[in-house]
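P.,

For your records, the input lines for the assembly:
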Amino acid sequence: MTEILYGVFVGPFRDMAGSPAFLVEVLLGGVATGLMYSLVALGFVLIFKASGVFNFAQGVMVLFAALTLVGLMERGVPVAVALVMTMAVMVGLAFLIERVVLRPLVNQEAIILFMATIGLNFFLEGFGEMVWGANVKKLDVGIPDRSFIVAGVQINQLEMSAAATAAVLVAILAVFFQRTRIGRALRAVADDHEAALSIGIPLKTIWLIVWSVAGLVAIVAGIMWGAKSGVQFSLSLVALKALPVLILGGFTSVPGAIVGGLIVGVGEKLGEVYWGPLVGGAIENWFAYVIALVFLLFRPQGLFGERIIERV
Amino acid sequence: MTAEAAGPLLEVEGVSVRFGALLALSGVSLNVQRGEILAIIGPNGAGKTTLLNVISGFYHPYEGRILFEGRDRTRLSPPDVAELGVARTFQNVALFKGMSVLDNLMTGRLLKMGGHFLLDAIWWGPARRQELANRAFVERVIDFLEIQSIRKTPAGKLPYGLQKRVELGRALAAEPKLLLLDEPMAGMNVEEKEDMSRFILDVNGEFGTTIALIEHDMGVVMDISDRVAVLDYGRKIADGPPEHVRKDAAVLDAYLGAGHD
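Structure tokens returned:
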């Protein structure tokens, strides 16, 4: 008994204090992973905020973006050109989704739109596999994957680049949503389609914009994840980790997606390294979902989400 | 009124709307004159809301035309209609519930804040000045509707009567040429109805806004409207000054049921 208590409450902290450099390494690793979760979660938040649609296909969009980029590069297209082409593909995809999926379903229940995105999910997965093949691909866009040591702490350049990219992206999106006229229009559309139409907000344009932006965010997420662990179909499973991140941060909050991602990323890394041995490891796999469950019980709107107000 | 102000603001010509086998409107013709308050009345299911939805572009008629300021705009979409200067409220209050009252009213100004959406996001300075100018106008609307004390409250938290008032405010913020109100007083108590009647008359009197409204409360209708049009089973059965319409035999039939078992 005392051994277990020691293992849970004392041992891990003694280990942390014993080797601060290692602790910092673990934390940095957690931050880097967390920011990547955040990038995927961001795509969800953007679409949910603007159209009230929970886009189940966001994870596959990340995969699809990465696949397209790698596929083009494998065929000898230079990185920069391939990147621009991938952006064009994602905007084109947004255009098609608005035309074929969203427009015929205007004013339907949220659950129907959700089902439509599940369909979209499977379509994109199959279509991507058909066009680009199912084997694991290596993605190298020229971000060096070297490690160097600063003050006894090992730092990975790729992870740091990912973190910096995520930070810049978030800053841009935050300004976009909070400070501009279009941000208010986006929130209005999220709240009430009919009313938004009646005050002159063109729904089609708004949806095209958010799905395009979500597609571009998916490219960034795809590049970062792809560079780290190769482009493969399990990439779309990252989307599942984005769910607890969303529950934690709130479905409608851009900062929430970031903070949520960081908490999950850092939390699961710390848990794995320091408490993992107690239970034979694999804490990383379920930690996020336990946190999400706790939040669902006590604070369902998440850390930064808008309170759900409903009058009956 | 300016020189171009000749002819009716809105002309509905022989409009029919069909939902499957149901003929919701059949050959309805109706004019809205500049500067008037027109009430559209009729029993439940007479097609009043359908008519409003056709005017604001949510439905398109399968026959007939709609002219706004003399130009045909039968098949425009709701945002395009809004851009022409038509604002509306909804029977069941369609506010942006998560947003504050102030933000709700600001959305009404979206069309007045010109320029391109994306450019707006980048051109920091001009966008900001524009925001302030529009904010000033919205503050006037807030004063006018006497809702200063709730400007920061999320719209969804307000009592029903106030929500209706805020919805009117959002429509007014757009400075419409034509204001469409779908049962602006439904579910209100006497005091709230009096307030709302006063606001409607003031909007019409002070800003010269043309108003077409649907209302069930006959007392209110007779008090505030310049003209009354009566619909029954998708047809227009009467149209004229209130005192005229209240004595019309067809109208009495429709309301008292003489003609329909």
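Two observations worth noting. The longest helix of chain B spans residues 124-144. Chain B has two domains: 1-85+176-261, 93-175.

Regards
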